[in-house]
């Protein structure tokens, strides 16, 4: 069962330190890795082309590499997503963050969604875990719950809220809904717009086992916040960093 955060634990160990901007250059990725080692983040989360470079940068550390797949639209063919995941694992990724086919989900074509997720799970089985991004800002509560159930049945290890490039981001209500929609063996990752320590703690208290954020340094270097260990007024993450669609 994925670990749950409690106030005696470091928040850093629950963070995927994320840099997914298309304009990232080697120096940015190297800095991401250095920061991840320095602050002991759980992983760095990058686009597939950076996985082997991150593995080099992180050699000798215990920081994992997460690679996004079908990112950020989720609209690529299943075959390509599976091949992309396979390539990322070959380059050293231990975790795959895939975007499910959002259009198929919106239409209720759950068999298509299940097939897409299952193909990625099978492509990396035994070598990497799979987190399924559903882009919660585009979905009704019923669609979010259904996406969680389909992802779990298809073999996913985590359900994840948002890409950070779409509509909206992680909210406390969505994390609670997603936690209630999967069994305790499945992780919930909050991502998109988590910019500060208060929001990070709200997500963890709501049941998130992992946070995906490009603001990891601000979160772990902030002074302990007023909502430490409890839920506060801030019920949702801010707007995503950039919106592509
Ligand atoms: O998967 C993680 C997200 O892309 C991070 O989004 P963010 O840049 O809004 O923190």
TrEMBL record:
Function statement: Catalyzes a reversible aldol reaction between acetaldehyde and D-glyceraldehyde 3-phosphate to generate 2-deoxy-D-ribose 5-phosphate.
KW Lyase (keyword) present: yes
Family: Belongs to the DeoC/FbaB aldolase family. DeoC type 1 subfamily.
Family annotation (SMART domains): DeoC (SM01133)
Enzyme Commission no: 4.1.2.4
Main location: cytoplasm
Pathway involvement of the protein, from the record: Carbohydrate degradation; 2-deoxy-D-ribose 1-phosphate degradation; D-glyceraldehyde 3-phosphate and acetaldehyde from 2-deoxy-alpha-D-ribose 1-phosphate: step 2/2
Catalytic residues, chain numbering: 97 (proton donor/acceptor), 160 (schiff-base intermediate with acetaldehyde), 189 (proton donor/acceptor)
Catalytic activity: 2-deoxy-D-ribose 5-phosphate = D-glyceraldehyde 3-phosphate + acetaldehyde
Domain of life according to the entry: Bacteria
Source species: Paenibacillus curdlanolyticus YK9
UniProt keyword annotations, A-Z: Cytoplasm, Lyase, Schiff base
UniProt name for this protein: Deoxyribose-phosphate aldolase
Gene Ontology cellular component list: cytoplasm
Subcellular location: Cytoplasm
Gene3D superfamilies in UniProt: Aldolase class I
A single GO BP: deoxyribonucleotide catabolic process
InterPro entries: Aldolase_TIM (IPR013785), DeoC (IPR011343), DeoC/FbaB/LacD_aldolase (IPR002915), DeoC_typeI (IPR028581)
Gene encoding the protein: deoC
Major enzyme class: lyase
MF terms (GO), sorted A to Z: deoxyribose-phosphate aldolase activity
Lineage: Bacteria, Bacillati, Bacillota, Bacilli, Bacillales
Keyword Electron transport: no
